[in-house]
Amino acid sequence: LNIVWGEEGDEFDPVTQVRQFTVGLELKVNNLEDIPKDEETSPLFLQMAEDGRTSVREVVPMRLFTLQEIDALGRCAGFELVAKYGALIEGVSIEDEDEAFRMVCVLRKS
Questions:
Q1: Cα–Cα distance between 108 and 70 in angstroms, integer?
Q2: Would you put residue 74 in left (φ > 0), alpha (ψ -120 to 50) or beta?
Q3: Which partner for 24 in 36, 50, 57, 89 could form a disulfide, CB atoms 3.0-4.6 Å apart?
């Protein structure tokens, strides 16, 4: 299973801070004999090509938040910002220009 989250040409509206994210699932089955062929078989498998591949793609709107917005919204809800990271991998600083590719905020109830 390969998950695609965003593509180069995804549109971003800087006024609303909404990005039109392309989200895709690409599935490759090595042995087609392993797929059940009954009334409960997922439609995803039924559309599978002869090479064992199938995919689904959607474009979904996603609001992007700045660090200041997350901090302010958290404080309004009774939380405090205690840490920020640049990835879900432990130890990646939000300021690491090479490794940081997303903002992960840790909030704690005040």
A1: 12
A2: alpha
A3: 57
